[in-house]
Design brief:
Number of domains: 2
CATH topology of the largest domain: Phosphoribosyl-aminoimidazole Synthetase, Chain A, domain 2
Number of strands: 13
Helix content: 25-40%
Shape: globular
Number of helices: 9
Strand order of the largest sheet: 8-10-7-11-9-12-13
Order of helices and strands: HEEEHEHEEEHHHEHEHEHEEE
Strand content: 25-35%
CATH superfamily of the largest domain: PurM-like C-terminal domain
Largest sheet: 7 strands, mixed
Distance between the termini: 37 Å
Length: about 325
């Protein structure tokens, strides 16, 4: 199948977004959004670095690649609407494999009524999937890392460390009965971006959000530095799934703090608004947990502290590093 036939085979038959004027089939897509701010992001996943055939089927590769982008939209408080896919295709990937990748993306896109409006396909030595996502948010309602303030409550959604634990099980197949770790494996392969919860926070005048893609230690530090505040986290309050308790304490701590790819949200909110956040989370079916507080001190602003028992230590960035 040549490039043009392949593009036709993955093209949507019908589009969902009424703002779309022109989708696939021209030099560029055209859409019109007169009343909202536009939010856009791009993520690139490379075979052998971000995924491996031994741990993921092609369907899961597509699903997780788009989930990572949708999670960025959630962190900005935006509604995902469109996505474009650029893919580098090596010779050892079949047409069936490629359709499975797009099928994974399509299944997740259907849940959010997103439209595929373009992209590019080229040949190369290893599979690379690069997705550009476009979303919308109410005017002046985008959520920035710079808005954390003193005495804010720090919260996270869901549970932490699941994806890293699931990957560990997949990479050590001879050591584990994988049927006992279905939840962790699925959390690695098919994460759930917290879009509904994040969008429902629009009624709050101020909330800070960051998606947990590289590990909570990294994401908390980004908020601390952007807002020039001190982030204080209580290790005992970090939420974890019961299956994580089957591993050593060292593994649990490493994965919860630095594992990444859970695509949960860490955020801060004023104390007075915390009850409303919990109400919104319940309505959205999203678990939410208070895990710390924000303070301010010229000597510690821009840092994250972790409290474990009676110990307090600086929590340095220790999650995934994109450029080494």
């Amino acid at each position: 199948m040549d490039e043009f036939d392949f593009i036709k085979s993955i093209q949507q038959k019908n589009y969902r977004q009424s703002s779309l004027l022109k989708g696939v089939g021209d030099d560029a897509a055209v859409f019109r959004q007169p009343y909202n701010d536009i939010v856009t992001s791009v993520d690139t996943m490379v075979e052998g670095i971000h995924f491996k055939r031994e741990t993921m089927d092609p369907f899961h590769i597509g699903y997780r690649a788009l989930a990572a982008n949708i999670s960025d939209m959630a962190a900005m408080g935006a509604v995902p609407t469109y996505y474009l896919v650029s893919i580098v295709i090596p010779n050892n990937w079949t047409e069936t494999d490629l359709h499975a990748i797009y099928s994974g993306m399509s299944e997740l896109a259907n849940k959010y009524r997103m439209d595929l409006i373009g992209g590019d396909t080229v040949s190369g030595d290893q599979l690379v999937v690069s997705i550009t996502i476009i979303g919308t948010v109410e005017n002046n309602k985008a959520r920035y890392r710079k808005n954390a303030q003193t005495d804010d409550i720090i919260f996270v959604t869901g549970t932490l460390g699941d994806s890293a634990a699931g990957l560990h099980v997949l990479l050590n197949k001879t050591s584990y009965n994988q049927s006992e770790f279905t939840h962790l494996i699925e959390r690695h392969r098919m994460p759930t971006p917290r879009v509904k919860f994040a969008n429902s926070l629009a009624r709050l005048s101020r909330v800070t959000l960051n998606d947990i893609s590289d590990g909570i230690s990294s994401e908390a530090l980004e908020i601390a530095q952007a807002s020039s505040v001190t982030m204080n986290l209580y290790y005992e309050q970090l939420p974890n799934h019961k299956d994580l308790l089957m591993f050593t304490k060292e593994q649990q701590m490493d994965w919860m703090l630095s594992g990444g790819e859970d695509y949960e949200l860490i955020g801060t909110v004023a104390k007075k608004d915390w009850p409303l956040v919990k109400t919104i989370a319940k309505a959205a079916g999203t678990p939410v947990t208070e895990v710390g507080y924000v303070s301010s001190n010229p000597s510690t602003n821009g840092k994250v502290f972790l409290y474990e028992g009676n110990e307090k230590k600086v929590l340095n960035k220790s999650g995934y590093t994109h450029l080494k």
